[in-house]
């Protein structure tokens, strides 16, 4: 006697948990209780939870992908830290660009500095922290400024205070890490990114630029940018960018994102496009102007307004997208897994005592 076989009903994952219309009683040979995650299949029964009549309730979808939501909630509660260093000689618009990047007054001028303060005769390190909140997400942003860099007649070894500061933050993190009773969440003051501002000369890099990036690229993620790029024509800008890339390659200077840190082909293809665009030719401004009925950030000239966020005018939007939307977390991971680990291994190998 033939028996027709009815294929099991395939139900999509419910968007809203609902009690199934019918739950068949288990057969004597069938295993009792839930069958596990099953690669993301909904679990209908949870032992110990149900009605008084012995029936169980459907609590909701359970799958491996719910881990992402758990991580998101914990991260939202903890918040984020991001530490960015800006380096370049005075007058290149470093503070203005950072204010424009984060749409907040995070520069040193808004934190107790004024026009009466003179640029120091030696390189100083000024770290200013702000908490930025958007959409329920809090980020502690620390901007490390380096007033006095490159402004002297003799700039020999002027990068030493900057290198010392970066290593001091690694040392501080290492000491917290090796403590027997260490903190649950170690404060992270390590420099995750260094924006290096190149003067828009249109010719070539200065020797100071080459020496700085050669020494510091080993300990921090350097992102070179061409400041005030609206002072060059389009042809001059493209030629200068090409010349800068060739000089960096000639001197063996690696800048972020480094080729050897690409995880897979998708990352490589995305980062190759970024590397072809760098150094970003940017313009910063915190002033608004009326253009075609819209308020835009820009710099007003005799022939019109240079719109900061217009990709046809400059590459500020590309830098912001790269720095905040797509690579902020990767900058932190490369800092921890590469630069900090290199420092940590060297320190422990030197004397084994921290």
Automatic annotation (TrEMBL):
Highest taxon listed in the record's lineage: Eukaryota
Pfam families listed in its UniProt record: Septin
Stretch list, region Disordered: 1-48
Primary residence: cytoplasm
Protein name per UniProt: Neuronal-specific septin-3
GO CC, one annotated term: cytoplasm
Family: Belongs to the TRAFAC class TrmE-Era-EngA-EngB-Septin-like GTPase superfamily. Septin GTPase family.
InterPro entries on file: G_SEPTIN_dom (IPR030379), P-loop_NTPase (IPR027417), Septin (IPR016491)
The Septin-type G domain, residue ranges: 78-350
Keywords noted in UniProt: Cytoplasm, GTP-binding, Nucleotide-binding
């Amino acid at each position: 006697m033939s028996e027709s076989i009815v294929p099991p009903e395939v139900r999509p994952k419910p968007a809203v948990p609902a009690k199934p219309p019918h739950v068949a009683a288990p057969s004597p040979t069938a295993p009792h209780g839930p069958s596990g995650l099953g690669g993301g299949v909904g679990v209908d029964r949870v032992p110990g939870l149900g009605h008084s009549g012995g029936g169980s309730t459907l609590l909701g979808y359970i799958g491996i992908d719910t881990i992402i939501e758990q991580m998101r909630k914990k991260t939202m509660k903890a918040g984020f830290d991001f530490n960015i260093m800006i380096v370049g000689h005075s007058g290149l618009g470093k503070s203005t660009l950072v204010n424009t990047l984060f749409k907040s007054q995070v520069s040193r001028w808004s934190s107790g500095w004024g026009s009466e303060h003179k640029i120091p005769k030696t390189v100083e390190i000024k770290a200013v922290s702000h908490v930025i909140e958007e959409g329920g997400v809090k980020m502690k942003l620390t901007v490390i400024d380096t007033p006095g860099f490159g402004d002297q007649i003799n700039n020999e070894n002027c990068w030493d205070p900057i290198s010392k500061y970066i290593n001091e933050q690694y040392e501080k993190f290492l000491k917290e890490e090796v403590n027997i009773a260490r903190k649950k969440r170690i404060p992270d003051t390590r420099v995750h990114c260094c924006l290096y501002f190149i003067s828009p000369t249109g010719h070539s890099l200065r020797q100071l630029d080459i020496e700085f990036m050669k020494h510091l690229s080993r300990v921090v993620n350097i992102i070179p940018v061409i400041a005030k790029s609206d002072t060059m024509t389009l042809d001059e800008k493209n030629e200068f960018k090409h010349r800068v890339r060739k000089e960096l390659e000639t001197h063996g200077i690696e800048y972020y994102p480094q080729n050897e840190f690409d995880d897979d082909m998708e990352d490589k293809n995305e980062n190759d496009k970024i590397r072809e665009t760098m150094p970003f030719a940017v313009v910063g401004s915190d002033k608004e102007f009326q253009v075609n009925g819209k308020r835009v950030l820009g710099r007003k000239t005799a022939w019109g307004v240079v719109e900061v966020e217009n990709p046809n005018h400059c590459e500020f939007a590309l830098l912001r997208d790269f720095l905040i939307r797509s690579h902020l977390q990767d900058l932190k991971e490369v800092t921890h897994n590469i630069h900090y680990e290199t420092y940590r291994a060297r320190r422990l190998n030197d004397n084994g005592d921290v």
